[in-house]
Fold this sequence. Notes:
three-stranded antiparallel β-sheet; 158 residues; CATH 2.40.50.100; globular; mainly beta
Amino acid sequence: MALVNCDDFFGQSVTVEDSFLYYPQEHLWIKAAGDVYYFGVSHAGVILVNGFRYMEYAVDPGDVIDADDSVLFVETFKAMINLTSPVEGTVEAINEKLKGEGIKLLDEHYYKEFMFSLRCEGLDPKTVFISAQEYLEALLRGDADHCGAGAKVMRRNR
């Protein structure tokens, strides 16, 4: 597993895990396991919100949701965020460890903890999500308030 670094991302170094897919609109990483998709927050997403304070889920396992339905509400040091689902599906699991102030775990373990998972039968992930390289390129272009011009990119293996 390798990480791609984007240096000088708002004065910090941000990593992009190349084994995940990404949904840049919500700064989510995605890991597929058959028809089940696990969603977590990317390192860039953590930096952009300046840390987490509190989180509540708007769904429970077994709920059927549509794309753009609310999944969870997060209080950060910058704002209140209503995170919506990028796809339709059935909620498989929510990460109970992250409820309430447990969300602070994501400030340092962003690629180790998923937030929720969905069963999405028949989903072609390439139609919704992008690769790690494409996400990095979006960060470097400055899409959606990301890395500015002149950021240095390095690859390192773990």
